[in-house]
Amino acid sequence: MTTDIAAAPFLWVVPLAIYLLTFVAVFRERPWIAHATVVRFAPFAVAPLAVSLIGGEKVFWLATIALNLTAFALLTLMCHGELYARRPSPRRLTEFYLCTSLGGVIGGAFAGLLAPQIFNGNYEYPILIALALLCTPGIFSGGIRSALREALPWLAAAAVLTLIWFLTRMQPPATLELPFQVLLALLAALMLFQRQRPMRFFGLVILSFAVTGLWRPGIAPVETARSFFGVHKVAEIDDGRARLLYHGTTMHGAQWLRDADGTPVAGLPAPQTYYYFGGPFDQAISAARAAHGGFDRVAIVGLGTGALACHRRGAERWTFFEIDPEVIRIARDPRRFEFLSRCAPEAAVVTGDARLTLEASSDRYDLIVLDAFSSDTVPVHLLTREAVAGYLSKLAPHGVIVLHISNRHLDLAPVVANVVQSLGLAAYLREDDSSGDLMTTLRANARLVVLARAPADTGSIARDWTPLQPDRSSALWTDDYSNILGIMLRKKFGW
Fold first, then answer.
1. 236 has which bridge partners?
2. Number of C-alpha atoms within 13 angstroms, CB side, residue 268?
3. How far apart are CA 278 and CA 430, in angstroms?
């Protein structure tokens, strides 16, 4: 929720509220929902979650969020129901609640401190789902040996698939995507048929996690790295013809490695995804360069794969501002992506929050490009009135600011429009619709806004792009106020 939409309190407070509410619902003489009912319905949420949690793009994001929250609520109700059933006599309640709190401390320390150090992905989430299933009533009623025999075939299959993958790194071709989806549907159905046998259900969940996490048709993982800001995955598609960078569930860059005939790509790498030559980024940068008579200094907020570096010309001095050290490492490694190393090897990369590091810079820039994303979302604090005013303070006379506001879940154009009006700027919007299929062309449709103090500073953009009009239905975003829910509903339902 917070990776793909926004790191906002009104989102992360939802699972917290559900968690606390389950205590209220269960820790009473007459629970809100009968414990047997919770146990009966939990598999119906866990089975589809098991085949969709790891791997793949989350296209139906609202349904995905609802499924995760439902499974979380049911599993938590089940665990707390079992905890309440095992409560001691009133004389030992203080000890009981102390141990319960200690368990929360241990779980929080594992998820918040240990897991980021030992896992390169968010694997603590499926692990905790699997452990919660071991709290199903009666799961060990026949003894531990009997329970293990029930789960052993499926656990062994998961272990074998994992071992094969680690030894061969073999991936099914993209042509097997449909059979793979059928296999996942069959796995989910099998889980539901075995829901009365808790250990078999547990083993099938583990098998599903192994299959979806490792065996994705057409996508061969190269590297997975985790930082404070999320999980980054470098992968190859089309039998190694192209390499991609994912942050969370969103692709943030791609490079062709070989031509259609299988020969290595010659010459400098051409930027792909949103940054392809002839696309909106190319138009905005070229028009500003022509209007300005060339650039001296350029600031890019957000590095990604470094694809924008290949829009650099001549002796222009480009500086990238990036908050995530893992992104910097990946972009600078020519074994991963070559944009930065071949198109602008001398470009400086400044580590830290761009609002702070750009403000601390002593330079003035002819072009500032805001291209910072956390998975699919521009961080909120980079789009407020104060943030844009800070960019203006570092903009050279007649300079131009380019804002990348592409988003699956949020309509950011009204936000930018109101900020622009409050600062008295000229702004122009372009929504690309010419890229075609992303996984075939590696081109993505971009939504861009170009800002300047005067229309003439943007060159041909003022003539060819759509003027951005203020939106009276939404309020001005500042460092003290933002409304993520409003623009999310507007994007989803047109409200």
1. 220, 243
2. 17
3. 13
